[in-house]
Design goal:
Layout lengths: L2 H15 L3 H17 L4 H10 L3 H12 L4 H12 L1 H13 L4 H9 L3 H13 L5 H29 L12 H10 L6 H16 L7 H31 L1
Helix pairs in contact: 1-9, 2-4, 2-9, 2-10, 3-9, 4-5, 6-8, 8-9, 11-12
Length: 242
C-alpha cells in the first residue's frame, strides 16, 4: 500500500466524520460545564474526557455524582449506557480480528456511536477494503471526534457558565444522536425498538437517578427483539406452507 493511498484512507474517514463534528461541540461543552458545576477540578473534568471518552456516560455519571447518588448507581448507569459498545465491538470484530492487540485496543478506546456507524456502513458497502485500510479509515474519523470532543469539554469547563441559557445548547445533544439513529431505522424491528425506547424515555423522564434510561433501554431492546422473532416465525411459516 503506497503512502498516498494510506493517506487517502485517513482523509476519507475524516471527511465523512466532518458533518457530525458540530453536533459534538455543544454536547461536549454541556458535559464540561456540568463537571465544573459539580466542583470537579480542571484536571478531573478534562481528564475524564481523555480517560473515559464516553459522552453520554460521562454526562449521566457526573450528574448522578452531583445528586449524591450511591456509587453503585453511578457505576451501573455508566455500564448500562456503554453496553452498546459491546455490540459495536462484536459487529466490528470480523473486520479487525487480524490486527494486533495494540491496534484493536486503540479502536476500542476511540469507539463512538459516530465512528462505528460511519465505519460499518462503509465496510459493508466496500467489501474490497483490507483490514489495514479499514483501520486507517476508522482512525481518521475516530481521531477527529476525539480531538473535537476533548477540546469541547475543555471549553465547556472554562466557558460553559458564561454561555447564555437562551442559546439552548442542550437542544443539540439529542439532535446529534438522531442524525445517527434515523438513517439506521431500516425495518419494522428497528422502527419499533426506536419508538418503544424513545416513548419510554419520555414517559419515565422524571424518575430519579436516570432510572428512566434503564427502562427505555430494556423496553427498546425487548420490543425490537419481539418483532424480530415474530417476523422470523412468520417468514418460516410462509416458507413451510409453500
Amino acid at each position: 500500500m503506497s503512502e498516498t493511498n494510506a493517506k487517502k484512507d485517513w482523509m476519507a474517514g475524516m471527511r465523512v466524520m466532518l458533518p457530525l463534528l458540530p453536533g459534538a461541540v455543544p454536547f461536549g461543552m454541556i458535559t464540561g460545564a456540568v463537571t465544573a458545576d459539580t466542583q470537579f477540578t480542571a484536571l478531573q473534568g478534562i481528564g475524564q474526557s481523555i480517560i473515559v471518552f464516553a459522552g453520554a456516560a460521562q454526562l449521566a455519571s457526573t450528574q448522578l455524582i452531583a445528586d449524591a447518588a450511591p456509587l453503585a448507581v453511578v457505576i451501573l448507569t455508566g455500564l448500562v449506557i456503554n453496553l452498546r459498545f459491546a455490540m459495536y465491538g462484536a459487529s466490528l470484530g470480523p473486520h479487525f480480528g487480524s490486527l494486533s492487540t495494540r491496534k484493536r485496543a486503540l479502536i476500542a478506546y476511540l469507539m463512538t456511536d459516530q465512528a462505528y456507524a460511519l465505519s460499518i456502513t462503509r465496510y459493508l458497502s466496500d467489501t474490497g477494503m483490507t483490514p489495514m485500510a479499514k483501520f486507517r479509515y476508522y482512525m481518521g474519523g475516530a481521531a477527529a471526534m476525539w480531538v473535537v470532543w476533548t477540546a469541547a469539554t475543555a471549553a465547556g469547563y472554562f466557558l460553559g457558565n458564561k454561555v447564555p441559557a437562551s442559546w439552548s445548547l442542550d437542544f443539540f445533544v439529542p439532535l446529534s444522536f438522531l442524525a445517527l439513529i434515523v438513517p439506521n431505522i431500516r425495518d419494522r424491528a428497528t422502527a419499533i425498538a426506536a419508538l418503544a425506547g424513545g416513548g419510554t424515555a419520555v414517559a419515565a423522564y422524571s424518575l430519579p437517578f436516570n432510572i428512566g434510561l434503564f427502562a427505555a433501554a430494556l423496553c427498546g431492546i425487548a420490543a425490537g427483539y419481539a418483532v424480530e422473532v415474530a417476523t422470523g416465525r412468520s417468514a418460516a411459516r410462509i416458507e413451510g406452507n409453500r
